[in-house]
Amino acid sequence: MRDRRAWLYQSIGQLAVPLFPLIVLAVMWEVLSRSGAVSSRLMPSVVLIGQAFYEELLSGQLVFHASASLFRALTGFGLAVVVGVVLGALMARNQWIDALFEPMFSLGYPVPKIALYPVFIFALGFGSPSKIALIFLECIFPVALNTYSGIKAVERKYRWSAANMGASSMQTFFKVLLPAAAPTIFTGIRVALPLSMVIVVLTEMIGDSRGLGYFIAYSSASFKYPVAYAAVAAVALIGFMLDRTLIFLRNHIVFWQRSDATPI
Question: Is the dihedral of CA 127, 129, 135, 141 positive or negative?
Fold first, then answer.
C-alpha cells in the first residue's frame, strides 16, 4: 500500500513539474488581460482562448490546418534526417566528401534559410513542395553537422579494437561508429525538429490557404485574436508532443544513455 501511494505521489510530482511553468504563465497572462494595462482585444483572457480552441477543434478547422502543417513539417524533417545522417557520415568517413561539403555547411549555416523562400516559390510554387524543400534545407544542417561531429569524436581505440577482432569497414561503421555517435546524432535531430515547425508556420503565413500559419495570419487579420492565440497554442502543443515522442524513441534506441529531459 505504501509503495503504491509513493508511486502515485511520484507520478503526480512528475506531471506537476513540467506543468508548473505553464500554470504560472497562464496566471500572469490572465492578470495582464484583466488588469487593463494591455488591450483585452490584443491580449484576450485564457478563458476566451481556451473556448476558441475548443470551438475550432469541434468545428474541424484546427484539425484541418494542423494536419496540413504537420504533414509538411514531418515530411521535410524526415527527409532531412535521412539525408543529413548519410551525408554527415560520408563527410566523417571520406576526406574528399568532407572537403567538398564542409565549406558549404560553414557558409550556409549562418544564413537564415527563410530568405531563400522567394527562390523556392519561384521554382516550386506556393504549395507544399516549396515549404517542404525549405524545411529540408533548414533541418539538414544540424542533423548532418551533429552526425559528422559524433562520428569524428569516436575514440580511435574503439576502431582499432574492432579492426583487431576482424570487423569489416561496414561492420565497424554500423556496430561501433554509429552506436557511439547516436547520442550526438539525436541531439542534432532534436534541434532540427522544432525548426521544422517554425519554418512551416512562417512559410504558411507568407502565402497559403491552409496550415496553422495561414490560420494564425487570417485570424489576426480578421481581428479574431482568441482564435489566433488558439492556433499558436496548437503549434506549441504539437511541438511539445513531437519533442516528447522523439525523446521516447531516443531513450529506447540509445538505451545505454537515457536523456534527462524526461523522468526515468
Answer: negative
